[in-house]
From TrEMBL:
This is Transcriptional regulator containing an amidase domain and an AraC-type DNA-binding HTH domain. Keywords: DNA-binding, Transcription, Transcription regulation. InterPro entries: Class_I_gatase-like, DJ-1/PfpI, Homeodomain-like_sf, HTH_AraC, INH-QAR. GO terms for molecular function: DNA-binding transcription factor activity; sequence-specific DNA binding. It comes from Saccharomonospora glauca K62. Residues 225-323 form the HTH araC/xylS-type domain.
């Protein structure tokens, strides 16, 4: 459905609390709160309706550099489809009772809950992470585990998607999780467009490690970037890890070490993820059959396409095309005009 349709917007409400980190607040505002003229013609549903709320009229931000005022009262959470919870610069200081109750009430009625960085402490304190996988900033892993042993903490990933509850590791991982949510809600092309405006990498897999040994190569020729670009231009070809190693002029074992150091993942996982993302874009365009999409993306067969898409995106190729396909949008728009 095009932007500006009668369909109601998905409401995202971010709770701010004393000590909240302004970076995570800025990420939420950037991804969900800005007007998006660059998405005209791409959206099937209206963009998000974004609000800030707090249990107090004035909120003193982290380190006391500034305060926020005139934000909505905490009752705004009652109308939210997605609730972003405040992070805790000092995670050992518990959130306020009204904030915890608002989160519990949102969870009970089925709202989606998200945390950035140490916001996982807030979700855990509210009891909504019990028995679930979650992640938080690597610096606070042991503190988290000692306080919330019933949570299945995964300390070595960027974010965890448990369906109705999602957690991101550190500050930069908040961007990764936010773009992941946009991709789930609006499709790969929309998420890529948003990431370009933010001048941020379009996708880092949630399963990538939080901390990599060498996030920035000291020399351009030491970086994996040329190999990655070479592979991205040939995803329809039968590339293997050995092919990538040959292009990088290293052994497969060395390539695995470099991928772990620079990207926090394996060559095969990266290659599969790139192929799935290409398949999503091709499905959105709606011009190829499933067999042709599988071949053009290097996934081989429609059966492989279905298996990988279900694993990484959570839906079948047909359902993905129905939700995000351009052809469907055009026919729906034409039907609306003729009516």
């Amino acid at each position: 459905m095009p932007q500006g349709s009668s369909q109601s917007a998905h409401r995202v409400v971010a709770i701010v609390d004393d000590g909240s980190n302004p970076f995570e607040l800025g990420v939420a505002t950037e991804l969900f709160g800005l007007r998006r003229p660059e998405l005209d013609g791409l959206l099937r549903a209206p963009w998000y309706e974004f609000r800030l709320c707090s249990a107090t009229p004035t909120v003193r931000m982290h380190a006391g550099f500034f305060t926020l005022s005139d934000v909505a009262p905490l009752e705004a959470v009652e109308e939210a489809d997605t609730v972003l919870v405040p992070n805790r610069p000092d995670p050992e200081t518990p959130p306020s009772a009204p904030v915890l109750e608002a989160i519990r009430s949102a969870a009970a009625r089925g709202a989606r809950l998200m945390s950035f960085c140490t916001g996982a402490f807030t979700l855990a304190a509210a009891g909504v992470l019990d028995g679930r996988r979650a992640t938080t900033h690597w610096r606070w892993v042991e503190v988290f585990r000692s306080r919330f042993p019933e949570v299945q903490l995964d300390p070595d990933v960027l974010y965890v998607d448990e369906g109705s509850v999602l957690t991101a590791a550190g500050s930069a991982a908040a961007l990764d999780l936010g773009l992941h949510v946009i991709r789930k809600d609006h499709g790969a092309e929309v998420a890529n467009t948003v990431s370009r405006r933010a001048v941020f990498a379009g996708h880092r897999d949630g399963g990538q490690r939080q901390f990599v040994e060498r996030p920035v190569a000291r020399r351009v020729e030491a970086s994996l970037a040329p190999v990655l670009e070479w592979a991205q231009e040939r995803l329809d070809q039968p590339l293997s890890v050995r092919d990538l190693a040959r292009k990088a002029a290293v052994s497969p074992a060395t390539l695995h070490r470099r991928f772990a150091a620079e990207l926090g993942t394996t060559p095969l996982a990266w290659l599969t993820g790139e192929r799935v993302r290409l398949a999503c874009l091709l499905l959105e365009k709606g011009e190829l059959s499933l067999d042709q999409v599988a071949e053009a993306s290097g996934l081989g067969t429609a059966s492989n396409l279905r298996a990988h898409l279900r694993k990484q995106v959570g839906v079948s190729p047909s359902e993905y095309r129905r939700r995000f396909g351009h052809r469907f949008r055009r026919s729906a728009s034409a039907g609306t005009r003729s009516a």
